[in-house]
Design goal:
With about 210 residues, the protein is α+β, with helices and mostly antiparallel strands. It is built from seven helices and 15 strands.
Length: about 210
Amino acid sequence: MEVLGPAPAWNAAKLIRSLTGAWTLIALPCWWPVVKLVRIKGTRVPHQRPLAGRVKSAAKVSGEDMPVLTPVKERFWAKVNKDGPLWKGTACWLWLAGCSNGYGQITVDGNNRQAHRVAYEMLVGPIPEGLQLDHLCRVQLCVNPAHTEPVAQRINILRGIGITAQAARKTECPQGHPYSEVNTYTSPQGGRACRICKSVYRQRSAIRSL
């Protein structure tokens, strides 16, 4: 026979009724409503969760001992420094908490969101669908809505400092030919190419094929 650990009295009584002959009452301590059970070889013990676990789960469901969540606005502004560098006479509001890819991050309703977008929605209103917020002050950690502008993704990219933006600002091709309206070929994907260079390339390819 195998001796099992303590089990709640109300649970043990249920097992004794359902497994007649397989369980025997051995002891009932006066300080806790618990019995010790003896399992006869060959019988199986149904898995039961401890009473403490049941009480803990019930407390979670009922909301007892749950931490009180701080409102989003209160959490948000506690992480902002409004004395940042000036842009056109107004200060940047710098995000002081966590960030990703250079932009401030804050958890709202269990989701990570960009801090400057949250600030815009709180102080200005919803961001138009399909648009992004461009930092006019070029400070990515700035959450001042007056320093951002809703624009299309392409405009936001071209205003930046990435490779695409740098290429778009060039006025000449690598060979020095101007990107004029007549000399510029625009591909279906939006890329630019020099017509003079393309013509020279075709001529050299034709000569090599002879």
